[in-house]
């Protein structure tokens, strides 16, 4: 499959995509600059200059272990679906797919088909198997996401006076709506698969009339193979429980870089507050910018000020370090992995 992997990234990063990526990063960096201007760049840069590099390195290591854990969950789900891929190979593909997901517009808002495409081009899995495994792994990751958020929310409500603020109330409402709506959508798509199939075919039929690249019969076959792969995966609850365990480990390591960023500038915050702030900030990552750049920084800074009671310049410094440890570090490692996937024979 190595010969096609290079083509996969070549297809994904054509001129038009690169132009959109450049525009997205440009707008995002402008938003970050304006945020820093409002907070005060001089005070923020002073704190960043005094940050402890050991804690920053620890945050980067935590991000690496997070992605490695999620990659292991991915491998388990794939194996349940009948696709055996060595972990050493798959984890590189996972890092590369994460890079692709982070740098492309709308990647964070719905990157499952995107990641499945990379996976199918770099393994023996077909696209439907890849998409089924990615969707299943993402659904497994939602459980620790909501659990961590619920623990942080409970602490806010019970132990502090912050639970009554408008910001926290809106975030709790948003998290609650996600916790209810996502399972409902999944349940409907599973129980009413014929209706889903007909809806997709209805969308595809006009396209099939003007191009030979898409056909109604081919679309029906893909949908049926996708649901068949989901059924195969759902038939192994023990293996799914193992994958879920790795998802929880990954989410813990996803949260710890915030703790490292706080320690790096000698700031403090209760861990249970971090359990609320990090999941809540990921909602901002759904905006159509690369990796939520710009929106996540604004959300995190505001949350650290209002909930963490940090000064604005300290909050922005912590946010910057956190994003370096998580987003920027993931881009660096993922970019190297993407080059490796492209070049390996």
From TrEMBL:
UniProt-recorded name of the protein: Lysylphosphatidylglycerol synthase TM region
Top-level taxon of origin: Archaea
Cellular component, GO annotation: plasma membrane
Family: Belongs to the UPF0104 family.
Subcellular location: Cell membrane
Transmembrane region(s): 21-41, 53-70, 91-119, 139-158, 170-190, 243-262, 269-287, 326-343
Main localization category: membrane
Keywords: Cell membrane, Membrane, Transmembrane, Transmembrane helix
Coiled-coil portions: none
Originating organism: Haloarchaeobius iranensis
Membrane topology listed for this record: Multi-pass membrane protein
InterPro entries: L-PG_synthase/AglD (IPR022791)
